[in-house]
Amino acid sequence: MTYAFKQTFLLASKYSIKAPYTMVPQFITVHNTANDATAAKEIEYMINNNNQVSYHVAVDDKEVIQAIPFNRNAWHCGDGGGSTDPNAQKKGNRISIGVEICYSKSGGVRYGVAEENAVQYIAKLLKQYGWGIERVKKHQDWNGKYCPHRILAENRWDSFLKRIEEAMKPMEIGKPTEKDDDTMKFTSTTAKAAVRDYIQQAVDKKVIDKSWLEKFDNGTMTSGDFEGLKIIIAQRSN
Ligand SMILES: [Zn+2]
Description:
CATH superfamily of the largest domain: Peptidoglycan recognition protein-like
Bound molecules: zinc ion
Largest sheet: 6 strands, mixed
Helix content: 40-55%
């Protein structure tokens, strides 16, 4: 686990504005915030204003924060009062859990790590509910809005879903994964050398700063850092 999970709940007195209906969730809807606020700021702003705009969860590079219980709806899909009928077209606002991925405006490593945290968290939710990957929707699926804008602009929706599926696979038995220490582990020196080479090449091409190589060499790079780094390298290599 690379993120801390927190709950900062919307006051029930605001349910009538932001979460008026009870909900039996059937889908997860992915968004990009299109700004550079932290998850805490994003949630603080949402729960304190009186707009009919809301979502259940915001994710950044450090935290996953839930603000609305999953048995209440939220207004994040732009498809109006919609329907709770699973066969209806407009149902995002009524039966989907809204997840906002932070820092999408500027992108960069912190966005990459936030996105990877969202991958891990969504995988966990799917497993909890016993759902398959088909339950994960983009905001665009509900009302056509270009959201999550960064994932769409970088043409990574399919690979985003693949990463979630990958994260849902059971841990290999005997792997020491349940430790606080999330620094990268390698099965062989060849595997380690290959990753180092990949980072070195990106540094040589001035795609990333050489401090990343130092971080790798001194053994403090986490799996989350590396997932973020891969996204940055892919983005800047295009
Ligand atoms: Zn959205």
